[in-house]
Amino acid sequence: MKFKIGFLALGTIIGSCNVNVKTNDPNRDPLPIAGTWKLLSGTLIEKGDTTVTDYTKDVSFIKIINDTHFAFLQHSLKDAKDSTSSFDAGGGRYSLKDSAYTEHLEYCKEPEWEGHDFTFTITIKNDTLTQSGIEKVDNAGVNRLNIEKYVRLKD
Questions:
Q1: Most distant CA pair in the chain: distance in Å?
Q2: pLDDT tens-digit series, residues 25-81
């Protein structure tokens, strides 16, 4: 009898564990945020000042998101001979729970940004993603609200 109770208890413990198994199941729905996104506009609000940047003219910025990681790439379109003068890149892991999207920045051209988490509220409507959240990096003197509007790039 004790033997049966032990197996029952062990089975209950194992069965109650929540194991997250990733698969390459082609029938599994992709995350709605996964894809390649082109930044259309960015609004920064810091210390009462608002700066709006149109990313459809002189700058190109994309964000690539898969099931576990994100990466962003930006460069100037003004001077094709030296795009490194305004090149920026970064990436890392992210988490998504409901509309709370948190980037865990592991790699960045600006090293003082590495190791920080940035939580945004996101909305996706049709092919448009909007994210809004506070970016705070004390050692870079940054504390601002960042609002970005992206369009999904088609294959």
A1: 80
A2: 455 556 789 999 999 999 999 999 999 999 998 889 999 999 999 999 998 887 656
Sign, Cα dihedral of 48, 55, 100, 20: negative
DSSP 66-98: -SSEEEEEEEESS-GGGGGGG-EEEEEEEEEET
Identity of the amino acid at 106 = E
Distance CA 46, CA 81 (A): 33
For residue 37, count other CB atoms closer than 10 A to its CB. Answer: 25
The position carrying tokens 């050692």 is: 139
120's CB contacts (< 8 A; 6+ apart) are: 100, 101, 102, 103, 131, 132, 133, 146
Give dist(CA 63, CA 65) in Å, integer.
7
Q: The pTM is what?
A: 0.77
Residue 146 · residue 44 · CB < 8 Å: yes
Q: What are the distances in angstroms from CA 146 to CA 3, 4, 46?
A: 59, 58, 9
φ and ψ at residue 71, rounded to 5 degrees: -145, 145
